[in-house]
Design a protein that fits this description.
Layout: H1 2-13, H2 21-31, E1 37-41, E2 55-59, H3 67-70, H4 72-75, H5 79-102, H6 124-134, H7 144-154, H8 169-173, H9 180-190
Antiparallel strand pairs: 1-2
Helix pairs in contact: 5-6, 6-7
Length: about 210
């Protein structure tokens, strides 16, 4: 890996004096390739005000003091699920607030913001991270990958997000211009309970 990195970085910068080959070989020889880094973080799921440190990275070997900065790019990828989780949490608070002002119960609040963001992200992995983050505040979701992540890494039994048979572009337009009414009738006849007949389901796109 060190040899490959030397070759690639040399071509990227078009010079041979940028990549610290000796330093990386030191990591291999003295630490068996393991990184001498100590990472500390607040407990996962903590709700913190702004201007707080979320995690720190500390070098434990003074011979390679430059090592910490190399991993900033990887570690800041935690930004994405944290941002989705924060946004969904704020939306949940807003929805609950106005339900209290206008309704006699807020028991349906957790179903009132639906995630159809699977189609709006860059990969299945992104869908899983964003979808799971949304499910911390809401139970309404088409992003099944979020449930899969929670089942695999957090021991979830069952599912965390629920959906309904819904009408949208293709399920209506495929009936033709003059048969729109029949398309909705068919939906209601096929799914007697729990259907959601609306023209557009993309009510929330993770990260977009």
């Amino acid at each position: 890996m060190v040899a490959e990195a030397k070759q690639v970085i040399g071509q990227v910068f078009k010079r041979d004096d940028v990549f610290n080959e000796a330093g990386w070989n030191y990591v291999v020889e003295h630490h068996g390739g393991r990184l001498p880094l100590r990472i500390k973080a607040v407990p996962e799921g903590s709700v913190l005000p702004t201007k707080n440190v979320l995690f720190t990275v500390e070098n434990t070997d003074p011979a390679v003091p430059w090592l910490t900065n190399f991993f900033e790019t990887i570690l800041v990828q935690a930004w994405y699920p944290m941002t989705v989780a924060t946004a969904s949490s704020v939306y949940r608070q807003l929805i609950t607030h106005y339900l209290h002002l206008t309704h006699d119960t807020d028991e349906m609040a957790e179903y009132m913001l639906h995630d159809a963001g699977y189609r709006g992200v860059s990969s299945v992995e992104s869908a899983a991270l964003g979808g799971a983050a949304h499910m911390l505040s809401f139970k309404s979701s088409d992003t099944v990958a979020g449930t899969s992540l929670l089942r695999k890494f957090y021991g979830l039994e069952g599912v965390a997000g629920y959906s309904t048979p819904s009408s949208e572009h293709s399920t209506v337009t495929s009936w033709g211009r003059n048969r729109e009414l029949q398309s909705h009738r068919h939906m209601l006849d096929t799914y007697h309970q729990g259907n959601n007949t609306h023209m557009h389901t993309h009510t929330f796109q993770n990260g977009t």
